[in-house]
Amino acid sequence: MVLKRAAEKLMCFRIALACAIRSNFLGNIYAQVMGKVGGVNQRKQRRLEQPAEQPAHQQHRLPEPNSPLGLALLSKWAWGVLSATNVQELAHAAVLSGAKAEDLVSLSSLGSYGQQPGNCHRDLVRKYCRDLWSPDPYSVAVPMKFVNPDTGAFDMEEGNIDMFLPHEWLAALDDAGLLDTLWSTHMLAEFWKTQKGNSKLQANPDCEGMIPLMMHADGGAFQKRDSLMVMSMRCILSSASVADSMLLLAAIPKKARWKNEAADTFDNIWKVLVWSFTAMFQGKWPTHSWDGSLIAECGGHDLTPKSRLKAVIWTLSGDMEYFSSELGISKYSSNSPCSWCACDRDRTGTPFNDFRPTALWKSTRVTPAMSKENNPCRHPVMRIPGVIFESVYIDTLHVLDLGVSLHCAANLFVDIVHELPGSRQSNLVALRQDVMSLYGKFRTPVECRGPTLELKHFLPNTTSYPELHGWKAREVRYLVPVCKALAKKYNQGTDYSEHRLRLFNHLNAICDAIDKHHWCLPESEQRAFKEDVDACLSHYSWLAKHAAHNRRLQWSIVPKHHFLAHLPDMATHLAPRASWTYPGESMVGTITSLASACTASTSARQLTKPLMAKYRIAMHLRHSMNLCQS
Prior knowledge:
By secondary structure, the chain is an alpha+beta fold. It contains 25 helices and 6 strands. Strand 3 (211-223) and strand 4 (226-235) form a beta hairpin.
């Protein structure tokens, strides 16, 4: 009886196994295990068609993602968009949905397949972030602000912030073989040919042949009630994406900054930066630390043994607010708004809004000899070798795109809305249709088009001068050719319309010249650029006087118009594009987004440590695991 039952069970098992083998799912598994799908000749043909195994030297040593989804998940995690737990959950969902890519299977196993979510980050770092090529963060003791729990008042205590050292970035790029990839160092010889007459090179002839850097600093909001001062650097020759080529130096939350007459959080930070940039200029590992203590390891050795290159800050980039509040120059709200000349707000002296060829302020321009004798900038950045007052460049993003162009476009829109027959609302609809039609004619990218025009954008009230509100700098730049076409369309043949049309003709030529040349304007273009700037400001002045004579609140002249008048002199040896703040502003946005991902249970004083660690991982993944998105 027992044997009969065992025989029945064995028969049932054989029948079930035969049915399963015939099915696609288990049949494939059985075939993979046994290796016997088809006859002898079929199996032989299949072996011949299989690709040969890659040689060992061609195989990746590091686990490298091989699916678009895996790449996207790692990239989002590296830049703070997704947490490690999110990565595991999405990868696991993809695997359950039928995905078979090895990297997705590996990502789904993080934290014991999600059973230990607290270990997901640890597992990701162990798997993809060993032997980081980027330098270790450098810890600096600085005075920091905190709220005294006993008194409820702000007080100062010493804390540590993490930052990256410029000379260590240079050494890391050289060691990883990324100098030319990220900073286009093959263009150095061509660049320095264009700088022969530059006053900065004449003041520091040893700079020739070095990597010319742009250093940028600016603030950006990363929380509702806090902002981040981000400092970064990039080679002005670079053609790589900003995320790849712009390197973070420091990021300090405003809430953590202590500042009074006795101490400032940035005092020690700038001492460290001056020391590090000096080492970069000399091309040697420093023998002493920034505080004078002896450094035993590597002191005096070459920073870049592979390329033998050094680097120098060639331009300081930032907006006028940063120049005024941090560098102590161009205090545009004062009676003397400009540090590049002796203009003032006094109409009887050297008024800043005089743009005639005979304007008195033009004879008071600060020359290299004058700035060497009495430097208008007293900031510690001037202690860095190779940095002089002429290293400070006026930025076209804030002065032109978010300055002069902003005023010109708003005044044109006001004219059109008032000049057309009909109500302001119906005229606004007609203006919208014109703008959208011209966007299509010029094939303006959708992401570079501004918001739908409303009266509040350029005519918020009748008691203030027109100025375009709610538009980004790049949107304003693409609006300039549209405004040129509108000025031509609505030209009524009057002196006013003619001056307005010529204003936009010259303004568009200025923008085209800036966009066209990466780091040097040809000599013929320099003359044309100066003529366009002078003519643009001259026509704007005529329109301003016409409006004042007719008691209309239009065409106001602000210090940004004056700063634009200085731009042609600065563009003689270095194109405005080489020092504009578009890359820096993009970097600020990237770092503030990354900082937002580090704020959970982290105070402002402790933010720099997780932020720098996360940035290292992001840079490592971009360059070591093919996550570059240039």
